[in-house]
């Protein structure tokens, strides 16, 4: 068989093989077979060196043509295989962008935090500035300056968690504060009059049952200025009740007794269900909101404020109770608010 016939046979064999290729791996096997160092084409090329010059020129040209034809066939097939792969990709790995996505879980602020911000805002619009006073407090500020001496029975309920720290001769032992009223005298001691203070903080008492959590929040308002009267107190609560609970709510003051205020009141708000008519929830149309009163002159004196010149009023309420009252919640166990159960918390 002549050199050119061998070339033709090789070329024909390549075309047959190429027609069966369906993927990159098969194509690579074919490349080794027809263009590799041990390929039939290389065997033929090696014959060239034994030819005469004229024969070699002619045969070499023919062999190169076949080699180029094979190479370009490989290039073309490679391109076609890639195109086919991309076409399949469009159908096999298609993404339907019109399908609704899977929403990641999104959290929100705890109901207590939301309420703190809201209440802070309501009083800020009346000129009250939110301040911070210690949660870990001397007995002096938590009790003594508020006219609750060491032997006063009210202390039984309030004496809470004592801190294992050295006592102070004047200020006594350290406790976790049982109420936000501890900030009142501290605020007066700053000596910056008049005062419009809002103290919202964690408070602690040794009670844990369905209506008490050992750690809870209170918000305490303190207003000290010349000529402060009960009228101011009533106006503040009316404003708060309507802002926080709704314009249709009314308040009333009921005489009460607190050590650090004189006179003292319990503040009630008209029931949201029966609007003051009386129902199963409220019995007489009113629900209790919290305590308030005009600061006792001794408390003003303890803070270095002249009771002859200045008058003061203070009010303090449990935040959790206020929150659950507005939501119309009848939480069977107040501790649920802090049990970190998302099923409960995500509702608010
Ligand atoms: Zn009612």
Describe the structure.
By secondary structure, the protein is of the alpha+beta class. The protein has two domains: 90 residues, no CATH class; 189 residues, Bira Bifunctional Protein, Domain 2 (BirA Bifunctional Protein, domain 2, 2-Layer Sandwich), CATH 3.30.930. It is built from twelve helices and nine strands. Strand 6 and strand 7 form a beta hairpin. The radius of gyration is 44 Å and the shape is rod-shaped. The model has no long low-confidence stretch (mean pLDDT 89). It binds zinc ion.
The string of secondary-structure elements, in order, is HHHHHEEHHEHEEHEEEHEHH
CATH C-level name of the largest domain:
Alpha Beta
Shape: rod-shaped
Second rung of CATH, namely the architecture of the largest domain: 2-Layer Sandwich
> How would a crystallographer describe the biggest sheet?
7 strands, mixed
- How many domains? The number is 2
Number of strands: 9
The share of residues in extended strands comes to 15-25%
Structural class: alpha+beta
What is the CATH topology classification name of the largest domain?
A: BirA Bifunctional Protein, domain 2
How far apart the termini lie comes to 93 Å
Give average pLDDT, whole number: 89
Please count the helical segments: 12
Specify Rg, calculated over alpha carbons.
44 Å
Which stretches of 5+ consecutive residues score pLDDT under 50? none
Strand order of the largest sheet: 1-4-5-9-8-7-6
């Amino acid at each position: 068989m002549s050199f050119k016939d061998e070339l033709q046979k090789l070329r024909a064999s390549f075309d047959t093989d190429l027609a069966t290729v369906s993927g990159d791996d098969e194509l690579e096997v074919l490349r080794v077979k027809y263009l590799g160092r041990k390929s039939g084409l290389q065997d033929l090329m090696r014959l060239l060196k034994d030819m005469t010059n004229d024969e070699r020129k002619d045969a070499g040209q023919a062999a190169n043509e076949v080699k180029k034809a094979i190479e370009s066939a490989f290039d073309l097939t490679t391109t076609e295989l890639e195109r086919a792969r991309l076409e399949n990709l469009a159908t096999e790995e298609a993404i339907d962008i019109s399908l609704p996505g899977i929403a990641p879980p999104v959290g929100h602020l705890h109901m207590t935090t939301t309420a703190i911000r809201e209440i802070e805002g309501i009083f800020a619009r009346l000129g009250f500035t939110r301040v911070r006073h210690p949660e870990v407090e001397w007995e002096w500020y938590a009790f003594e300056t508020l006219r609750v001496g060491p032997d006063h029975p009210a202390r039984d309920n309030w004496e809470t968690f004592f801190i294992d720290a050295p006592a102070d001769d004047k200020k006594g032992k350290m406790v976790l504060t049982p109420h936000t009223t501890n900030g009142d005298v501290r605020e007066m001691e700053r000596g910056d009059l008049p005062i419009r203070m809002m103290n919202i903080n964690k408070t602690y008492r040794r009670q844990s049952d369905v209506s008490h959590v050992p750690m809870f929040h209170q918000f305490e308002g303190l207003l000290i200025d010349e000529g402060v009267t009960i009228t101011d107190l009533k106006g503040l609560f009316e404003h708060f009740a309507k802002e926080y609970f709704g314009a249709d709510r009314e308040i009333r003051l009921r005489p009460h007794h607190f050590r650090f205020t004189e006179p003292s009141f319990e503040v009630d708000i008209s029931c949201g269900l029966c609007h003051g008519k009386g129902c199963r929830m409220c019995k007489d149309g009113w629900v209790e909101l919290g305590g308030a009163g005009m600061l006792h002159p001794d408390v003003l004196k303890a803070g270095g404020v002249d009771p002859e010149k200045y008058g003061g009023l203070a009010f303090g309420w449990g935040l959790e109770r206020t929150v659950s009252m507005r939501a119309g919640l009848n939480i069977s166990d107040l501790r649920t608010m802090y049990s970190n159960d998302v099923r409960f918390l995500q509702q608010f």
